[in-house]
Amino acid sequence: MKKKVVSILLVTAMVGTMAAGCGSKKGSEEGKDEELSLSVTTTFAGEDGNAGNYKDAVAAFEKESGIKINDSSAVSDETFKARIETDFQAGSEPDVLFFFNGADANSFIEEGKVVSIDEIRKEYPDYASNMNDDLIAPSLVDDVKYAVPVNGYWEGLFCNTEVLDAAGVEVPGADYTWADFEADCEKIKAAGYTPIAAALGEIPHYWWEYSIFNHTSLDTHLEVPESADKGNGPGWVEGMEDIKGLYDKGYFPENTLSAKDDETFALFTSGKAAFLIDGSWKVGGIASACQSDPDDASTLDTAKLDKYTVTYVPTNGERKATDLIGGLSMGYYITQKAWDDETKRDAAVKFVEYMTTDDMVAKFAQHTASALKEAPEVDSADFNSLQIKAIDMMAGVTSLTGAVQDVFNGQCRVSTFDGMPQIVTGEVSAKDAVQQGLEAYAEETAE
């Protein structure tokens, strides 16, 4: 059976077939690239479901082009983001970078260290021509588009159905409310399980985002309020208080304030916790946890994987449960350093073109989102059961809205991210924590 790769709203089919390198206006002279090498950094590493696809694609590109790729990809976290910023400051940035297109990219865009898509198209008019330009996110700095997207993301509610069954709880549906969720959590807790797998002391991100989204709207969610009393400010405070309410009722792991994310994830995959809010990339992480060899997909225990599903995050306000956080938040940048190097410019373009053909994007996007004008059909037999469930879930999505935390980043988030333990324990009020973060944001943007 054939299924279309899911698009951003699952309503927009996205097209175009493009052979690798066909966008280049000028090809390299015979043999010119054979001794060339490119430094490339991406986030396709660790448990990212596309780490293997990326490794295979790089090997194929090297064989086809004769260009050596010096790869320094790493798992995306705050340390990785800091490393990228430091590399640009030190002049040791890679030639090609797969990175975020939100506020995390502001510094190197402001410094003119990456090349815009329009600038590249002046010399390579077919560059990213298979993409729907309307779906390529512009930078927050100058509203100019720099990064060519591959796969997007969504954030949803993963469920361990074995735990739900044991507690007499049904898999949540499209009309799932906060009251429903709390009632289910109470049943799960009474049955001797942990309702929610989350390390609030390390990764409160997903609960922070959705709890705020529940008290804002599709149109206003990405607006950072002036203060805790204005605009979305009261909604932010209510969101933090909702998380505190879940904590007070004992729905998080006992060690949620000190545990690491991998510890609480292990609770979920070992059948001790029921719910997990995370991103589409976690589909790969769950599958790996169901393999006898995490690095070998052929060792997948399909019966074990069948016990997991993904559904909609409970609503507690204006948003529908089917309104998810998601979009196309990352893409391939070509740095100014590579562009100015006549021996590397063509090679960098070729690499990005190779990694963003229709077929390659379809392979990477799978059950997520893409900016292709049209996605090629893929065989559902190529997907595991959780991927198929994700595709089915996404078929019911009514909207995807970007994450406001991608705008509200850096020191602004300390009071509510790092400070989440103090908020849920009542040491600091939600309003004071939100206000502190908003004041830091105002100071940072004023600079």
TrEMBL record:
Keyword Transmembrane present in the record's keywords: the answer is no
Its domain of life reads Bacteria
Q: Which UniProt keywords apply?
A: Cell membrane, Lipoprotein, Membrane, Palmitate, Signal
Pfam entry (one) = SBP_bac_1
- Signal peptide positions on this chain: 1-19
Quote the protein name from its UniProt record: Extracellular solute-binding protein
